[in-house]
Write a structure and sequence with these properties.
The chain is of the alpha/beta class. Helix content is 58%, strand content 12%. A 5-stranded parallel beta sheet has the order 2-3-1-4-5, sandwiched between helices. Helix 4 packs parallel to helix 6. The chain is globular and about 40 Å long. The chain binds adenosine-5'-triphosphate and magnesium ion. The site of adenosine-5'-triphosphate has 21 residues, from helix 1, helix 2 and helix 3.
Length: 200
């Protein structure tokens, strides 16, 4: 399987669709948000540092995030030790979020003889996203799912992450799936599976 980078704004469904992709294709899943929340929960020093950024809706600094990602990718638990990744493929959920992270990911994979594979961009309007995230706040109680922090995360996404879509376009691996064309989860998934099947 090719690696997949799942890309989109907060609440666009990166985690949800990643889980469905894992079920269908048996790939490994790396969610940097989940990794960071795990560190916070365990009370580690890294978690402590991460929390100060997450609570404000800001990104963790690139150098730190890149080193965390490489560590997870190479860990046996991530099933990504060179070799297995080449067969099962990895879903990158929430990474990269800046051009610097994207360049680093490309290099890290190249160093291991791997490729980025394909990027799937989830396009969903901010009004729909806000509604979903406020609902998730009630259901899951994530500390950064409150209206003020969500607005900050949208702003960070627009300024720092969205421009990255063009970078993937130039790499020739960008695939767009939009909620306006596929206005329910089943339809979104069908479109995503079609892309993956065609690319593998
Ligand atoms: P969703 O989980 O609904 O897709 P999201 O994209 O805001 O929403 P996560 O991907 O879980 O949520 O990330 C939560 C927070 O973790 C981010 O707001 C950011 O502070 C931090 N974070 C996660 N991934 C990265 C990254 N690649 N670079 C920098 N910070 C990150
Ligand atoms: Mg997520």
């Amino acid at each position: 399987m090719k690696n997949i980078i799942i890309f989109g704004a907060p609440g666009s469904g990166k985690g949800t669709y990643s889980n469905e992709i894992v079920k269908r294709y048996g790939m490994s899943h790396i969610s940097t948000g989940d990794v960071l929340r795990g560190e916070i929960k365990s009370g580690s020093e890294l978690g402590h540092i991460a929390q100060s950024y997450i609570d404000k809706g800001n990104l963790i600094p690139d150098d730190l995030m890149i080193s965390i990602l490489a560590k997870v990718y190479d860990s046996p638990k991530g099933c990504c030790a060179a070799g297995s990744a080449a067969t099962a493929g990895v879903i990158f959920d929430g990474f990269p979020r800046t051009i610097k992270q994207a360049e680093a990911l490309k290099q890290m994979l190249a160093d291991r003889g791997h490729e980025m594979g394909l990027m799937i961009e989830l396009v969903v309007g901010e009004d729909v996203l806000m509604e979903r995230l406020l609902k998730r706040a009630v259901e899951q109680g994530r500390a950064d799912d409150n209206e003020a922090t969500i607005k900050a995360r949208f702003e960070v996404y627009r300024k720092q992450t969205a421009p990255l879509a063009e970078w993937f376009e130039r790499e020739g691996i960008r695939h767009i799936v939009s909620w306006s064309e596929h206005p329910c989860m089943e339809q979104m998934l069908e479109a995503i599976f079609n892309i993956i099947d065609k690319e593998n």
